[in-house]
């Protein structure tokens, strides 16, 4: 005479094999193998059986549980396959597929990557710093006078706590000198912010790449050689570069850089492109004061710094007439650089 467990196993297998959908199959699983299921209940009864019955019932219980579990897995796979097959019946495989569009780097990112790659070849490391900074890093440490127009609220974005959105990435140069002694050779790419009226050539947010090199016996010749090499690698070997005297509070002497290149649409005209100069001794003194030592002794060390606008470089190199196009996410514009 069959044992009740064998009858229970056969009933479970019959319910599982005839299940027509996943919901019915799950109900069968709960009914037999759930915490309060019929087969699970036998496990609770094992402690009430005699020593002679336990081995027999235990063996039957394991066989029933194994058979039911295997049947559940097999039926589950069958039902899932049937469900997928029904879903595919309505798909016309003769229709052409949906083409996948390939993306591309934003023109500003392309410009930045090209510039960073050139400077890395000259031994410059990439340094980063916060977009929100203090007046000391943005102005005081850079020898900017208290009454300088750049400190005015009409020119700079100030926060309620007195901090500000950096107006240039020169803040990263100060932080680099504060954290490490010379020699250093870094570039600082990133966003900067100024209260400019937005038009075809001005934006409240723009992108810069600034550089700093400090060591013993660094000269203007090093500055000119570095920037001439960079600009000719970027714009072509025939690029002409000239340095015009200028004034920046953080460099002395200071220069504006103009270029003339056949790679540019207006190749026969000089274009203003960047600013640079030898680091002002007052900047070194500010850094020494913050560090609490004399690591950047202006009697021993000299250095040069420069800054280039990535947006302006990209506009000139790619012949883009309006800076606002960089932020409008217009695919008609962006696809030109894919």
Strand count, sense and barrel status of the largest sheet are: 7 strands, mixed
- Number of extended strands: 9
SS summary, helix count:
11
Looking at CATH, which topology of the largest domain would you report? BirA Bifunctional Protein, domain 2
Rounded average pLDDT: 87
Report the span from N to C terminus: 79 Å
Strand order of the largest sheet: 1-4-5-9-8-7-6
Number of domains: 2
What general form does the structure show?
elongated
**Radius of gyration of CA atoms, rounded to a whole number:** 37 Å
CATH superfamily of the largest domain: Bira Bifunctional Protein, Domain 2
CATH top level label of the largest domain: Alpha Beta
Structure report:
The protein has helices at 4-17, 22-33, 38-45, 53-89, 107-121, 135-138, 170-179, 220-235, 281-291, 310-318, 331-334, and strands at 125-126, 132-133, 164-165, 184-193, 205-215, 240-248, 251-260, 271-279, 302-309. By secondary structure, the protein is an alpha+beta fold. The protein folds into 2 domains: 4-89; 107-337, BirA Bifunctional Protein, domain 2, CATH 3.30.930. A 7-stranded mixed sheet has the order 1-4-5-9-8-7-6, sandwiched between helices. The model has no long low-confidence stretch (mean pLDDT 87).
